[in-house]
Amino acid sequence: MNVHYTEMGSALALRGIGYLIANLLGVFLPIIVKKHNQGLLIVAFLLSGLSKKLNFEILFKKKTSRLGVLSIPFLRSLIVLCVVCFLLGIGHGLTDLGGTKLLFSMWGMNSAAPLNIVRLGYGIGAILMNLFVQPFLPQSNLFVPYLITAILCFAIAIGYLIFYVREVQYEIVNTNEQENEKTVRFGWILSVLFILSAFFTYGNEQTFSTFLFSYLKSDKFQISTNQAIASTIRYWLSYCLGRLLTAVVCVFLSVEICLTLVWILGFVLAVVWLIFVWFVGLTQTSLVLLGAATGFVLGPIIPLTFAFFNRKVNVTPILLALVLCGAALGIMSFQKIAGEFGILFRRNDNSFDF
User: Fold this and answer.
1) pTM > 0.70
2) In this structure, are residues 33 and 97 in contact, taking their beta carbons and an 8 Å threshold?
3) What is the pLDDT, as a whole number, of residue 351?
4) Angle at Cα 251 formed by Cα 246 and Cα 257, nearest 5°?
5) Which of 118, 113, 33, 108 has its CA nearest to residue 310?
6) At 60, is the secondary structure helix, strand, or coil?
7) What is the pLDDT of residue 20?
8) Do 134 and 226 meet the contact criterion of CB atoms below 8 Å apart?
9) In terms of DSSP H, where are the helices of the chain?
10) pLDDT for 258-299, tens place per residue?
11) 282 by DSSP, 3-state: which?
């Protein structure tokens, strides 16, 4: 599409707005989240699949008469991209809202390991999709990958529909009956802290993973598309490793200890980033290594935070939705800021890094 960081940031910010609107549903209609979380997941994946179908239809009406379908780049219009990002943001928001509530309903306070395992699929999907898309990038033809993604979305929606129609009832899995009583039923200060935590963690995770490939492909590093994809895959492999390792460790250590260790690693990593960005300077090697370390730390933070959140307060649908609204604001803000910083990056490549 020949767009720059600014346009990318705007489109991704619209995705964050869609994510915010979806989670506002939980604020104003909490009964739907409480009783119909599987229904939300059905809508989420149908919407994700239909977003790609909508994109196909808009694109084909403009281009089919001039070019063969399989030779058309998947997107040419920034407006279309913004519409699709907005719809996908709604789907993503409904997925997080309904899926997190469903996991809390099934696992109660023992949700740390399941949250890490379920969210592990996010990283695995990113790895597989990078490998799958790689052969299509030189021809700028993403029709086949997106078509398969749309089919998978519809298949998952059908799977949730089967469970929803059968009205499967879940019982809380609990290995320690004494842990049933939460020490804090509802704390406003703690809830605000969790909302702020979601703002920064989601904003960092979404922005870093989105812009990493584009930054590697900039003129600063002069690397090929395949090399950039390989570096992106290393990030996601570390991301998956962090979540998988945490899922195992959570079985033996408390959520509080695991989260503390991860945040200590995150603080050390942030200091190292600052040293390389402002004093040493980023090279291709240092960026790949720091990117992999970032994936390892960012991966487990979100599921561990939600597990800790579930242990400390009575997570009502409204409170869960408010936390995810904070996440949406973080996604919008960080990605828009990253896009605007791209202007400075292009103007003065030697003295400015993300």
Assistant:
1) yes
2) yes
3) 39
4) 65
5) 108
6) helix
7) 94
8) yes
9) 5-28, 30-35, 37-63, 78-107, 112-133, 143-166, 188-216, 225-252, 255-275, 284-312, 317-347
10) 999 999 999 999 999 999 989 988 888 898 899 999 999 999
11) coil
Q: Who contacts 243 (Cβ-Cβ below 8 Å, separation ≥6)? A: 116, 117, 119, 120, 123, 299, 300, 303
d(CA 51, CA 245): 34
Please determine, for residue 28, whether its predicted confidence score (pLDDT) is greater than 60: yes
Report which residue type is found at 80.
Answer: V
Residue with tokens 């299509």: 136
- Which one, of 79, 68, 89, 71, lies nearest residue 22 by Cα? 89
What does the block give as tokens for 312? 């400390």
Residue 182 backbone dihedrals phi, psi, to 5 degrees:
-75, 140
Higher pLDDT, 203 or 34: 203
Helix 188-216 × helix 317-347 angle, to 10°: 30
Q: Is 303 exposed, middle or buried (0-12, 13-18, 19+ CB in 10 A)?
A: buried
Long-range (24+ apart) CB contacts under 8 A made by 188-197 are: 190/312, 190/313, 191/313, 191/319, 191/322, 191/323, 194/305, 194/309, 194/313, 194/323, 194/326, 195/322, 195/323, 195/325, 195/326, 196/326, 197/305, 197/326
pLDDT digits (tens, 9 = 90+) for 85-125: 888 899 999 999 998 888 888 888 888 899 999 999 989 99
For helices 317-347 and 78-107, the axis angle rounded to 10 degrees is 140
pLDDT digits (tens, 9 = 90+) for 197-255: 999 999 998 888 888 887 787 777 778 888 888 889 999 999 999 999 999 999 899 99
CB 335 within 8 A of CB 210: yes
Where does the pLDDT of residue 55 fall: very low under 50, low under 70, confident under 90, or very high at 90 and above?
low
CA 118 to chain CA mean position, Å: 13
Would you give the distance in Å from CA 323 to the centre of its chain?
Answer: 15
Residue 165: exposure state from Cβ atoms within 10 A (0-12, 13-18, ≥19) = exposed
Q: Which of 112, 107, 94 is nearest to 38 (CA)?
A: 94
Query: b/e for 19-52, b at 16 or more Cβ within 10 A?
Result: bbbbbbbbbeebebbeebbbbbbbbbbbbbbbbb
Q: Taking the C-alpha atoms of 30, 36, 42 and 43 in order, what is their torsion angle to the nearest 10 degrees?
A: -30
